[in-house]
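Two proteins, back to back. First:
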Amino acid sequence: MKTYLARGQSITFADEDAPPPLAKATINYRRIQICRLFGELVADGVSLSELPDLQAMVRPTMVYRGLDAMLRRRGGKSSGNIHNMAYMLLVIAKHHAKLRDEESQRLKIAGKRLKVERQGMTKKNRERLSQFDDEQNLNRLLLLPEEILKIAQEKIPSPTRAASLVACQL
């Protein structure tokens, strides 16, 4: 895993098939995903000797087993996280583990099956935006820039500091 994650931090000209460098947040997220897959496999009964390295974890049989464990816990329903996991494992299989094309193709098909088609906003986003269904809240939000500007002009004598405050608040 360390080799894979370290490779994602640098540009490699020698390997034409290498993916572009990854942001630090992406590398951290992938570390979490890999650890989660490892945990899923061990919890599902895979022995540590069967998982000597990342290459062993991204073989189709192990990927299927890990993803299947995740699906069982969700009552057989996929999610964006499960689909993202499948896609990340495909990338690792192709670019790091250098699996044969037929094995990579199996992982690609699995990822397509796990894709979640979302139409519209998520429930969480709808709930967060529902506060603006109230006309008074919406008006307060729309008038906020004017209110901040008014406060800055009245309470801060320095135009530079006032401008700085307005910029930070907006």
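And the second protein:
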Amino acid sequence: MSAIATVAEVHPKFKEIPDGARGEAEVLTDMRLVMPNRPGALISALQAIADAGINIRGSAGDLRPGEQWGYIHILVDDFEAAQKAIEAVGFEVTSLHDVDVLKLEDHPGAILEAAEPYSAGGQNIEVFYMSRESLVVGTDAMRKPIPGTRVEDARYR
């Protein structure tokens, strides 16, 4: 399997991380939304992205029964266009996070082999979910700040 880029090439601060079973890697931007937990809210955001002609490469969510809000992570190639589409329908992107999208082999321990080098290198994993046949990993060092944005201040329609 040919590599698009290694973690060390994309993020030089990871040069000390030992090689693991990473396979191919590419860097994309994960968007985090705080989503009201009500019927149709998620569909509204997904429809806005689809209407903008943007393909969702991966997504994860945590909308718990009985809670007023939940978190949605969306991974796309063009996060700026997706953010614009999402905000146009009344949602706010509260976090942008560069993430390594790591192609995995299918065998027991493959996720561990891909994720462990981040921890061994002293990085705290903040974003972690599967995307089709890939693992999405974002560490604290990869987060993109959005000054002034706090969960309790997020805007919704």
